[in-house]
Amino acid sequence: MPQIRQISSLATPNAQVAAATKPRRFKYLNAPLMIIVALLTIYGLVVVYSAVSTNSQYNFSRQLMGVALGVVLMVLLFRYDYHQLSHYMTFFLILNVVLILMPHLPLIGMSANGATSWVRIGPLSFQPGEFAKISVILLAASVMQRYGGHLDDPREYLKTLVIMLIPFLCIMTQPDLGTGLVYLFIDAVALITGGANKKFLWITLAVFVGGVVALFTLDPILDQIAGHDVLIKDYQKARLLVFLDNSYDPTGDGYNLQQAKIAIGSGGLFGKGLMNAQQSTLGYLPESATDFIFCVLAEEFGFFGALALLVLYALLIWQCYRVAYNANDLFGAVIVMCVCGMWLFQILENIGMDIGLMPITGIPLPFVSFGSSFMIVNFIMLGFIGSVWAHNRR
Questions:
Q1: What is the pTM of this model?
Q2: How far is CA 218 from CA 26, 225, 320, 337, in A?
Q3: Pairwise CA distance, residues 78 & 387, whole Å
Q4: Do 291 and 364 contact (CB within 8 A), yes or no?
Q5: In 3-state terms, what secondary structure has residue 120?
Q6: How far apart are CA 322 and CA 282, in angstroms?
Q7: Which residues of the chain have pLDDT under 70?
């Protein structure tokens, strides 16, 4: 390694480490990962353009601006040494709370689809909870790196759980269950990657399942006493009923799922062609550019088009795993695995709900679904992965 050989024997250990970890120009990029993301982004832009072309509610130029700004931030993060963020646990915790609770502030908070999750400042509107995914991952990684890969003390484990659950409890005040589930999955990946005791993990899983069962048991009793929905909203109950029985209320609560299946099935092997997704263009498929963008893709490009997307996602997850596996420190490995786990959860949930294998939630498809904030966050995540790849000791 030429750079290391040029270091003088009189150089300090810190100088040697800095020289060894400094990215080499033009060689700090993970080329396969960049190619995969470029293909995903282009594919997504083509499908989104088709989905929004007949819907004045969406502005395609905003999607392009989101991609452009995201790429700029990604490149800047490539050169930033992620190690410098490893000791800011308290800051990330405060940042999470501030971001997630922003929509509750008067004058700037906005409500949509039964949730207060948007903020409007002048002409700009965005979801702070989406950007909070970044701070949730950094919080989880900074917490786990303190234990050096061995979290075996039950009191420390309980303390870690409490800290990680704070963002979830904050997001449920909106309420935004879809984003909350993403937070929980990130925390689970961080605990597993960070070396939490397996016995503690199994106990946590058992308590979680028991809590869900108790929630559904007590909910109707509390609703009857209060005279209104207390814990689980009516639309959330309807989504669960549709998930348990795909044929439930096909013209009402199950309408979205039925139209999604029609769109996917009508694409056949090779699809109907670009701009020919009739389910979305004729208005049968709601939220076609966001939650149900996979249906538009499958209808226009068919089975092989959907398969191509899944192959790209599989390669994306594999490349992220390689970066985490080769990371020289726990903080970097947890960051990459949390991003990888978050993307995997969103892919499985989004595509799964379109075909009836998962409950319907408002979880978008990485690098494909419409949303400038969502695209910016994805590229920022990619920037951190690139930073971990670039700043490992060679």
A1: 0.87
A2: 59, 11, 41, 36
A3: 4
A4: yes
A5: strand
A6: 43
A7: 1-28, 112-114, 228, 230, 249-251, 393-394
